[in-house]
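Issue: ligand-bound run for heme C - logging full I/O for the record.

Environment: standard queue, default settings, no custom constraints.

Inputs:
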Amino acid sequence: MKPARLISALIGLGILLVSNAVGAAGNIQEGAAKSMFCSGCHGIDGNAPFPGARMAGQSTQRLGQNLMGFKTGQRFHPVMNILSLGLTKQDIDDLSMFYAAQKPLNLEHASLYWRLGGPDALNATVAETIKLSKADPRLAGRLSGACAPQLKTQLCAATGGPCTHSGRDMKSAHKGLNVSDAEFGAVAQNLVSVLDAFKVPEKEKNELVGLIAPMRGVIVGQ
Ligand code: HEC
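Outputs:
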């Protein structure tokens, strides 16, 4: 490989790694158009009759990793290896967004987003958490309804749903707010009591808490 090509390949890899780190940056509509080609084997919405080919409602992370795995040969399947060669990183992001947004017929490989109940359940969880937090003396009006869209997108992206949200957005969204550890803990506790009230199973609850805990770093003390 010539040095110039090697350098551009390395830059390409760098961009890939950085974009992976901030989550899928795909577009659902673009993905829908591109999925026509896949629907013969995977079903119009990714709910193929053959369980091994079901993609509906998987996490954007899992879909992206599998497609990239086929493309790079890390995962072997004769048909998918050849088909994925023609896919760009953008195609993979768009397709991952589209399939992550489709309601799965069964939850076996479904993202946490769908195991928690999908968009309606997520919206209700956020609305209730904000309601509890507004009335919470530990927070004294610090969390308002204006946070709802951000919180929804953040939870949707973190649970593998079809949303884009980057860690950097989180940091700048909290800049100057001086959120304390105690305030972060209070919101997290309110969220857990909403999950309990909604009877979210222990496994899903723990997974969600496990995703939220590391966000402390980009929220507290900014
Ligand atoms: C000719 C049929 C065919 C077409 C067309 C096809 N696939 Fe596949 N795909 C398969 C089969 C079969 C499997 C199961 C592979 C296995 O069992 O390892 C699969 C597996 C996958 C998986 C892994 C699923 C999982 O949960 O492990 C993904 C992701 C995927 N395909 C995406 C796509 C996308 C995106 C397209 C369109 C660009 C596409 N496929 C087009 C046949 C096809």
